[in-house]
């Protein structure tokens, strides 16, 4: 599956949103064939492929039941659905680099499963100055999600003002089938409210090439 031309309008909308406000929420926007392929793949994934998600990286990695309780499975190019997904993210990356000069260099992503009661408390995906994750992407694979099912993504936008109503700075997203959320990783704290039924998603991050710090040439 390739996405050479068909997604240009979508990529343009995402790009404009990012330039304007730093995030983009596009309900039901992931191409239907790709969404279905990913959901079918996810349903067939044996449960042992999913591991409790941790917080922090490498040696600081730990599991913390107070912060997040979901299970994840990292995505690699080893099946049709994952290849189609990575191809799509590569097209998005190329588009955003062309339009916004973001210098996105690499991408990593995982499937996530939040069982009933699972959550991910308020956090940021990256911290300023660490030069790691630049742009977060989340897509949802849940058919017929309703407001009663919980599991909303809440994004905190410190820049949204114009009212004294405190809730104005919160953006709530239902994890509905094919909905795409993209945001600048360092800018937006966010959380996943407890899901009341199984909730499936993909979360991914575009990174900069920080090989200058490490004195390593980028892989060719
Ligand atoms: O699933 C979501 O809505 C967001 C997940 C998330 O914030 C993360 O995995 O870092
Ligand atoms: Fe996150």
From TrEMBL:
Domain annotation Fe2OG dioxygenase: ranges: 100-208
Required cofactor(s): L-ascorbate
Pfam families found in the cross-reference section: 2OG-FeII_Oxy_3
GO biological process: cellular response to hypoxia
Presence of the UniProt keyword Ribonucleoprotein in the record: no
PROSITE patterns per the UniProt record, alphabetical: FE2OG_OXY
Keyword field: Dioxygenase, Iron, Metal-binding, Oxidoreductase, Vitamin C
InterPro entries in the cross-refs: HIF_prolyl_hydroxylases (IPR051559), Oxoglu/Fe-dep_dioxygenase_dom (IPR005123), Pro_4_hyd_alph (IPR006620), Pro_4_hyd_alph_FE2OG_OXY (IPR044862)
Gene Ontology MF terms: ferrous iron binding; L-ascorbic acid binding; peptidyl-proline dioxygenase activity
SMART domains with a match to the protein in the record: P4Hc (SM00702)
Keyword Oxidoreductase: yes
Domain of life: Bacteria
PANTHER family hit by this protein: EGL NINE HOMOLOG-RELATED (PTHR12907), HIF PROLYL HYDROXYLASE, ISOFORM C (PTHR12907:SF26)
Name this polypeptide is given: 2OG-Fe(II) oxygenase
